[in-house]
Amino acid sequence: TAHLQEGLPLSGKKVLITAGPTYEAIDPVRFVGNHSTGRMGFELARAAADLGAGVILITGPTHLQMDNPSITRVPVVSAQEMCQVALDYFDEVDVVIGSAAVADFRPKTTSDSKIKKKCGGLTIEMVPNPDILQTLGDRKEKQYLVGFALETDNELENAKSKIAKKNLDAIVLNSLRDEGAGFGGETNKITFIDKNFNQKPFELKTKAEVAQDIWTEILSRLHA
Ligand code: CTP
Ligand code: CA
Q1: Residue 94 is part of a domain; what is its CATH number?
Q2: Where is the DNA/pantothenate metabolism flavoprotein C-terminal domain (predicted)?
Q3: What are phi and psi of 171, to 5 degrees?
Q4: FRET partner for 33 with CA separation of 20 to 30 A, picked from 39, 59, 63, 207?
């Protein structure tokens, strides 16, 4: 079907998308995680495939299914694994979208055996995980690099500072203030901000529609 993809806006382009949560192991049966479902990343992957791209979709633990010949799914568990896989593919891709809810911290040590309750209380020392987007941003050559920002306060300022810190080309601000936006739900309300700090706010929409809006913004800048 390769010839059918010719003439689409992302024909011949490769896209890397991270999606879902990461799980950071405490012991063989316990982890530190978060409520991300991966929905936004899966919609971005589907939309990219529909636009003609070949997609690498790196997913943390999620029940979502993906069956699309243009999308290669690479399942991972932890932030460190996600970072390594992203680095493995980075040189061959044109666009990266980091939509994963990467755990900022992991337990300093992982117990090989299940921790027993007779230990009394439990204090878990946490250490910082690698910042995946920043790691890629530091190595960036031709790639167009897009992050997400989940903010509750000073959202525009914080999102803009993440563009600079991670050497991004754009960031998608997720407005948690609005009903129906954020983790798990069917809908999202975003503002697209590029590295020149041009801002474009969107209405509350389904995540599939939000994915199309994000790709429209990226495409207009890729071709500029
Ligand atoms: N991100 C990443 N690696 C991490 C943490 C975050 O690649 N270890 C990415 C996320 O996928 C997202 C962007 O960085 O695209 C911003 O994530 P966010 O949690 O909003 O920002 P942080 O840089 O982690 O800062 P903080 O949580 O303190 O606001
Ligand atoms: Ca974070």
Answers
A1: 3.40.50.10300
A2: 10-220
A3: -140, 145
A4: 207
Report which bound ligand comes closest to the CA of 78: 1
Say whether 114 counts as a known binding-site residue: yes
Position in ligand 1 atom list of the atom nearest CA 165: 23
Query: Which two tokens mark 53?
Result: 């791209």
Give a yes or no: residue 116 inside a domain. no
Distance from C-alpha of 68 to C-alpha of 47, rounded to nearest angstrom: 11
CA angle centred on 192, ends 191 and 195, rounded to 5°: 135
Whether 113 is in a domain gets the answer no
> What's the domain count of the chain?
1
Confidence at residue 153, expressed as pLDDT on a 0 to 100 scale: 87
Do 191 and 156 meet the contact criterion of CB atoms below 8 Å apart?
A: yes
202's CB contacts (< 8 A; 6+ apart) are: 189, 190, 191, 192, 210, 213
Structural domain includes residue 192 = yes
Question: pTM for this structure?
Answer: 0.95
What domain range includes position 86?
2-106+125-222
Instruction: Give the distance from CA 52 to its chain's centroid.
Output: 20
Question: H or E element: which one contains 90?
Answer: helix 79-90
Tokens 């003439």 belong to residue:
7
